[in-house]
Amino acid sequence: MVVILLADFVGYRGVMPRVATITSQEVWEGTAARFAQAKELAIDTESNSLYVYRERTCLIQLATAEEAVVLDPLVVDNLDSLGQLLADPGIGKALHGSDYDLRSLDRDYGFRISPLFDTQIGARFLGHQRPNLAATLETYLGVGIPKSRRLQRSDWGRRPLSDEAVDYASSDVKFLVALAEEIRRRLAELGRLEWVEEECRRLEQVLYSPPEPPHIAFLGMKGSRGLDGRELAVLKELYLWRETQAQREDRPSFRVASNDDLAAACRAAVAVGTEGLKDAAPGLARRLRGSGGTEIRAAVARGLAREPVARPERSERVNPWGAASRKRLTALKKERSRIGAGLELDPALVWPMGSLERMALEPEDWRREVDDGEDVREWQRREFGDCWGSGLDG
Fold it and tell me: Which helix (H) or strand (E) holds 40?
């Protein structure tokens, strides 16, 4: 296995040194033992959601301030020591844009990460307008990393991995510990480090949420809102067919048939029957000509034979907004923007919009909203809790 020393590469703009993957349980356990002594650990993951029906974590990139490795979880079976590292309260964890990684690690292994520091969030609280990793590294460390849309969209589940792919994946963690340290330093100078730490504690609670089952999910498919009850009955059957076919082929459902093709097929089926499918939904034409055509036509026939589908009724809600409350909301948003401009911060970070709306609608309870609003952070209460009363006089 090859590892690299990072200390000599901060600010390095040339071709990145190669990093080999860890494909041995024994090597991984030795690496985990070393990492257990680290002050901070950088983490990133790569998955294969664009290529399989049920995605999974295919690479786990890890780095300390001195060493970077790429762990292959498709080969190394026992990752208990990784879970221990991720949960160790004595080791800081640096991630960039961590939401997806948190959900993936929870989904596949039940791992939780704590304590967490998200450098993307930290960069936003420094006023950084383009907080993607490449731009953030360039801004705060003067480091350039490879950019490749082709590699970004790689099938990370394929083996063997090319050296180019491994280098590209490892670049996401090579400088992350140094980046976290620099961002924390700048946040502390501005008095905003506690703000970001609270945001990161909230992030630590993120868990994977499984998708709705197909017999319910079809109602939420993009493009389904314009279908009537008969067309929805056909859509349900076609949607179930697509899920079954995607599982059979082990590929994402959108690669079997697009949402637009399913919606168009439903309209054509109700209007002219199955004969109009190939013209209305060109993305299904190849499958209609092949052996899958029988299954598609059978699904359409089942849908046409069913009772029309009625969407669950939405409860009628009275519009609570009047001229006075809208005026109050405008004043509150103006004050939030003023505060954000003074701090060179995105106003959305200053105070949650939902909380402003509740204060505008119920101005007499604004102080209770400030003190108890569930989406209001403690740092926001402390820093800006007294800023809103003047905007509620109208």
Answer: strand 40-47
